[in-house]
Amino acid sequence: MPQAPQNAVDIHTHIVPAEFPAYAGKHVTEFGGKQWPQMCAAHDCHHKSVMIDGKNFRTVTDECWDVARRQDAMARMGITRQVLSPMPELLSYWLPLEDAVPLIRHVNDTIAAMVARAPGQFSGLGAVPLQDPDAATRELERLMRDGFKGVELGSNINGAPLGDPKFDGFFAAAEQLSAAVFVHALHPSGKERIVGPAGLMAFIGFPLDTAYCIASLMTGGTLTRHSRLRLAFSHGGGAFASILPRLTHGWTSRPEITERIGISPREHARKLYYDTLTYDPHTLRHLIDTFGVTQLCLGTDFPFDIYERRPIEQVAALKLSVGDVKLLHHDNAARFLGEA
Fold first, then answer.
1. Mean predicted confidence (pLDDT) in 214-236
2. CA distance 156 to 150
3. Domain boundaries, position 293
4. Does some domain include residue 95?
5. Is 121 exposed, middle or buried (0-12, 13-18, 19+ CB in 10 A)?
6. Nearest in space to 330 (alpha carbons), one of 308, 311, 303, 309
7. Do the domain assignments include residue 25?
8. Residue 250 is part of a domain; what is its CATH number?
9. pLDDT given for residue 332 in this prediction
């Protein structure tokens, strides 16, 4: 394995708590109670199943919560530090607020405890109940006081794009607090148009929804109003690199689009951050050419079964300069996290 420079930072990793508290809300037979997760034993001592509405949502490894096991995996991968964020399904936008807040607090407290065990190796991005932007802002303020680097958001909030003006107050707070915002694909639209097993959604729907999300932040004016926001997007920004030239052509040829977006979409895009999770060096090279080598950060989706097990080799295959490798491994992540 090629030797990684010191401080190789993975900005895209997830946690799941080892246990969830029993549901204590008032919606026991309704939507809230049914969607409250629980953990149950799986096929061996290193796995548990996340149960939602009595069904196995996902069987996960104990690397989701066990710090020592996680550190062992990091050593194998050549990763020095991981940025921990919730399994996206735990963002819980679909729950009533009175249910979402205690669940999110439990998840955030789990992240905080893991970071406290090894603060040199872990940093935290928490969850906020963005179905209620005011409540989300309060939780963001708490997270930043408690040493989190920022938050993870879904690519849409119960179908509403992040570029919807109703989220403007939250983004204003994130900008003021200098919070990093990592956007992960979640519950994409268009499920009915995917032919095949449900698992295809992560491979087809996720990149498309991320592209919709980035475009909405441009066309909705969020990026113009909050130009100091630090936003990163999962899965290399999904399909957005392929959409960007067409959107830029619209910006140059249609005055109403020019007025709506403001500066060129290419200029907006080169201020955002993206992870390297493309599974393909040629695609990663295209992202570097499109967005700039200063905007890509290592990302693996650890520890879920589709995670990139050789992120260092993926970058090495590009045969970049030592300085550019350092950018992808560490420096870009440091800027995204507000450390540089």
1. 97
2. 18
3. 9-16+67-336
4. yes
5. middle
6. 311
7. no
8. 3.20.20.140
9. 98
Per-residue pLDDT at 158: 96
The closest of 61, 51, 22 to 306, measured between CA atoms, is 61
Amino acid 312 reads: I
| Helix (H) or strand (E) run with residue 190 in it | none
* Domain assignment of residue 32, yes or no: no
Is residue 158 a contact partner of residue 185, using CB atoms and an 8 Å limit? Answer: no
Q: What is the mean pLDDT of the chain?
A: 94
Residue 57: inside a domain: no
Residue 78 zone, left/alpha/beta (φ > 0; ψ -120 to 50; rest):
left
Identify residue 1 by its one-letter amino acid code.
M
Of 17, 124, 13, nearest to 79 (Cα)? 13
Q: How many residues would you count in the chain?
A: 340
Whether omega before 303 lies within 30 degrees of 0, making that bond cis, reads yes
Residue in 68, 138, 51 with CA at minimum distance from that of residue 101: 138
Residue 4 has pLDDT above 60, yes or no: no
pLDDT (tens digit per residue) in 303-323: 999 999 999 999 999 999 999
Element (H, E) at 158: none
**Helices in 159-205 by DSSP H: which ranges?**
168-176
Tally of domains in the chain: 1
> Cβ distance 62 to 69 under 8 Å?
yes
Tell me the pLDDT band of 190, cut-offs 50, 70 and 90. Answer: confident
pLDDT at 31: 63
